[in-house]
Structure formats: C-alpha cells, structure tokens
Write a structure and sequence with these properties.
CATH class of the largest domain: Mainly Alpha
Largest sheet: none
CATH topology of the largest domain: Arc Repressor Mutant, subunit A
Shape: elongated
Distance between the termini: 78 Å
CATH superfamily of the largest domain: Winged helix-like DNA-binding domain superfamily/Winged helix DNA-binding domain
Helix content: 40-55%
CATH architecture of the largest domain: Orthogonal Bundle
Number of strands: 0
Structural class: mainly alpha
C-alpha cells in the first residue's frame, strides 16, 4: 500500500502529472506478482533524517532526496523511537513448532522410523498444532532426513534370481 500512497491522486482523473516511470515500474512489478521493492539504503535514510534535523521540513527533505513524504516521516519517527533509521528485517518467520522443538526432536530420537503422519498424531495427543508439511519443513530446517517406510508392497520391479537361473539352465548357457 505504501507504493499506492506515493502515486498522485491525479491519476484518478486521467492525469499523469507528478507520476514518474519509477513508480510505474514498481506498480507493474507488484501487480504482476513480483516481490515488493527493496528497502531504501541506510545511507539515503540517514541523509534524509540529517536534512530534517538540520532544519528542513520532512516533506522538503523527501522532495530533495526523491523519496515519499511518508517515508521521511516514518524514518524520523523511527529515529526518535529507536535511535536508528535502519530498515526492519524483512521476510522469514518463526514456526510455531519451534516452541515444541524439544518434544518433536526427542520423539524422533526415541523412534526414528516414524512417518510424518505418526509424528503429527503424536503432536495432536499433546495438543500441539501442526500439519504434515509443517513437520516436514521443521525437519528440513533442522537438517533431519525422513525416509519413507519400506513396506514391500509397492509397485517396484522385483528380481527373481531363481527364475532367470532356471531359464539359463534350460538353454544351456549357464
């Protein structure tokens, strides 16, 4: 939404005044399913904040450095609140399963041949929310390999050593 806030309201009136190509490229990238643009550099943020602290208004500093006024305002608020204008970390999240890592890892140590569904069932008995894919991602993060059980009833090729030997014996090529 921050990008849409930077786009001039005049666009609603079929006017391109105050709208530059940079904003258009960002909007197209977002609408086509691309990722959000990267945060502005720390150096740019500090230059805008230093200009404001030197006496410029937030909006004037934003215009001077070609950033949105809302960015300059937010950077000033962040500087006042935390003493830094660095961007917040983006991306990534912590799985709710990490809070129960000791239980899940101990379960695998006790019984290394459990399937993902059996692990999920054991978690449900302890009222730990999770799915098979969440457990798989948890194991992937912890570099634990979970192999499928070999039940012997799969559709795979089987060697019949005695049969091929009998065939060879009958043909005389043994």
């Amino acid at each position: 939404m921050a990008l849409l806030e930077r786009i001039s309201a005049g666009l609603n009136r079929d006017s391109l005044a105050g709208f530059d190509g940079r904003h258009l490229r960002q909007l197209i990238r977002i609408l086509e399913g691309g990722s959000m643009p990267k945060p502005c550099s720390l150096e740019l943020r500090e230059r805008v904040v230093n200009a404001v602290e030197s006496g410029a208004s937030r909006r004037a500093a934003a215009d001077w450095f070609d950033v949105s006024a809302s960015s300059a305002i937010k950077w000033m608020q962040r500087r006042q609140a935390t003493g830094s204008v660095a961007a917040k970390p983006s991306g990534g999240s912590i799985s709710p399963l990490e809070a129960h890592a000791d239980f899940v890892l101990a379960l695998v140590v006790r019984q290394s041949d459990l399937t993902l569904d059996e692990i999920v069932a054991a978690m449900r008995k302890r009222r730990i929310a999770g799915s098979r894919s969440a457990v798989w991602r948890f194991f992937h993060r912890h570099k634990i390999s979970v192999k499928k059980k070999s039940t012997g009833s799969g559709a795979r090729a089987r060697r019949r050593g005695s049969r091929s030997a009998a065939l060879d014996a009958r043909t005389g090529y043994v």
